Amino acid sequence: MRPSYNKLALSAIALLASSTAFAAGGGAVADEFKWMTFAVFGVIIAITMAITFWAARTTHTTSEFYAAGRSVSGIQNGWAIAGDYLSAASFLGIAGLISLYGYDGCMYSVGWLVAYITVLLVIAEPCRNIGKYTMGDILAFRNDPKKTKTVAALSTITVSTFYLTAQMVGGGVLIKTLIGIDYEISVIGVGVLMLVYVVFGGMKATTWVQITKAVLLVVASILLVALVWAPYGFSLPGYLQAVVSDPDVQGQVSKLLGDKAANMTPEELGQRFLEPGLFLKSPIDQISLGMALVLGTAGMPHILMRFFTVPTAQAARLSVIWAMGIIGGFYVLTLFLGTGAAMLVGPAKIASVDAGGNMAGPLLAQFLGGGENSMLGNLFLAFVAAVAFATIVAVVAGLVLAAASAMAHDIYVGVIRGEHATPQEQVTAARVSSVIVGIMAITVGILAKGQNVAHLVALAFAVAASSNLPAVFLTLYWKKCNTTGIILGMLVGAITAIGLVMISPNMTYPKAVISGAKKVLEGEAAQPAKLAQAAEGGFICELFAVSGCKKAEPAKPEQAAKLGAPEKLAKLQEKLPTLTDAKDLEKARKDIAGLEKSIKKAEEDLKKMEGQTTSMMGLEKPFFLLKNPGLISIPLGFLMVILGSLLTRDKRAEDMWDELYVRQNTGINAEAASAH
Amino acid sequence: MSKREMNWAAIDADPRFQALHRKKTTFLWGLMIFSVIYYFLLPIGAAYYQDLFKIKVWGVVNVGILFALSEFVVAWTIAYVYSKKANAEFDTMAQEIINDAHKMGA
């Protein structure tokens, strides 16, 4: 199948046209400046289309489609890994968390970098030496190829779909918040664009789109941080002193601490922003998430796949080193982006545009350029918005390629055709699979509109860590590991991770939603002070809501009765005509708008939950108490691989061990780069 | 490079390969265990040693911030140490084995 260049050009034009045609109202960018955003979007789309056009000319064989002919250099691959990995969640989300919660947000970012140590030390080089195109190839090396490829493909598609859904929904919301394009249009736009890259340009186009995005992201961040930090002569204590002295930051801490803030001086409040505990509550949940990150990244199919694109194991090593430099450096920059946004824009304003803080970076850019009504400010905002857009497209392209390769290479060629497919058929299968996965991603993205998908990213990492990593790790390093172990471990690991999340606090529990909404509408009665209560029942009670357990309760000060929002609203509206001071008037108007919003939301919640008492899983409240299942599902995944391997004998797995072990350490007979 | 049939068991049994295997295993496990422990000290410290994390050491910069930043430095250092060792030692040892691989067990 020769890609048709006319079609490619046509779809590019259609996309450009559609993105300007649907410039509906709303969004962070003012209408008069929207043309600028679209111009920057247009430039980025044009660049990536040119890359795809160029890459399509050398993408004919399977090795070219899945692995860019194994001709990507170590440094290029390092940038591409960073581009693949730094999703909008880390670009916008972590800066947002830091801007709202200070220290805890910064602590959250560390795990994403430490994850690459596992990739570097145990995964990258062996995978390059014995792998071909997919994770299934690694597992099939000394195990039953059909069985392991089936399970590997299922797991790959599951992990990629979770991650993909989170990206599509997050991307759609983001583009809507930034420039007001309809959610559905954004999802379709992102989906079609990504499909064009993948179908025509395969891994080569995907790689270069990711490199372009990573460079844009790093350049944008460095520029913003330079502008934020320069006034303080690039001194860390000087800069942070300014952050903690900022009244907006102090106000935010006071809001987060509630009654506890009553006896604190402004200096203490500001300093508290740099101390742990404003956002993350349960250390066990933290450790569980940390385990999922540190072990899950190395089991992410789209990350594993990147190591098949370089010519040698040495290049794979170099690419992780570069990726760690770029990713780590980027997270250090977000520390300044987040605190800078908190100080200059203010947490209250950031949260008013997006409750999760996702707009911290873009709003900071706008501020630094001169503010809401300035040309330069909006140009900065446009640039950051365009980088966010490129980010989503690049990450999504990598995920689609990973899922499509599992479908085409593992399932179709490996299992259905029993490895007997002509090169031509294989490439066609890869392209067709990409289209299927892409259409699926667009459909799921549209269906999941308005759903809370944040936990899907954590779930993808948890499944990768509990299912993929134990299997890949043990087949590479443990002689006795065999087919039964891998199948058992992967299935149990994945099912446990998914099952635990289904009964965890991540799901929607109608009773909690209803009581929350009622509190907003009807107010709360006065509460007497409560003494702190220690947990009873031991460690298991920290994890599960079993009978006989008593959760630890912190001490609560006495609380006065609170009015319901409608009552507050009525009082404010009564007061409004008596106000004369312009400042008071504006504040009252703002409060009224805020109250109207929360009433509307509470009413919508009540309507949505009407008549329901249990979650999807039939639970009234979460049974599993952690948000992340890693702490249980990861050890279980490892245990099951070991158990299954010890209980059965597999002659092929044992016979092939010497070959696998020698090859992964020396690179003898590794898949070679194709010459161009 | 065309795929060649090798006597894998003979290469595996070769003392040079065994030496490479031993060196790599100890070194990699050492680094891995150290980095995991160092990483989990951060959430544990932030949860249970807040008084320590709050101590100001450099203007408003406290122990917690320095510790979080040190996580980045330690991760980069581990990457540097590993690549140095692999480039200088493991690669050379592997290359010697590759050069003689076709002769082993023949």
Summarize the structure in short.
With 676 residues, chain A is an all-alpha fold.
Topology:
The complex is a heterodimer of chains A (676) and B (106).
Chain A: H1 5-21, H2 34-56, H3 62-67, H4 74-85, H5 88-101, H6 103-130, H7 135-140, H8 145-179, H9 183-229, H10 236-245, H11 247-257, H12 266-272, H13 283-296, H14 301-306, H15 313-344, H16 347-353, H17 360-369, H18 375-416, H19 423-447, H20 454-477, H21 483-502, H22 510-522, H23 540-543, H24 565-575, H25 582-609, H26 630-647, H27 651-655, H28 657-666
Chain B: H1 8-13, H2 15-48, H3 50-53, E1 56-58, E2 61-62, H4 63-100
Helix pairs in contact in B: 2-4
Give structural attributes:
heterodimer; A: 676 residues; mainly alpha; Sodium/glucose cotransporter; 28 helices; globular; disordered N terminus; B: 106 residues; 4 helices
What does this protein look like?
The complex is a heterodimer of chains A (676) and B (106). Chain A is an all-alpha fold and 676 residues long. Chain A has a domain at 5-246 and 277-452: Sodium/glucose cotransporter (Up-down Bundle). Chain A is built from 28 helices and no strands. In chain A, helix 1 packs antiparallel against helix 2 (34-56), helix 5 (88-101) runs parallel beside helix 15 and helix 20 runs parallel beside helix 26 (630-647). The longest helix of chain A has 47 residues, at 183-229. Chain B has one domain. In chain B, 77% of the residues lie in helices and 5% in strands. Chain B contains four helices and two strands. A two-stranded antiparallel sheet of chain B has the order 1-2. In chain B, a hairpin with a 2-residue loop joins strand 1 (56-58) and strand 2. The longest helix of chain B is centred in the last third of the chain and has 38 residues, at 63-100. The chains are: A mainly alpha (676), B mainly alpha (106). At the A-B interface, helix 6, helix 10, helix 13, helix 15 and helix 28 of A face helix 1, helix 2, strand 2 and helix 4 of B.
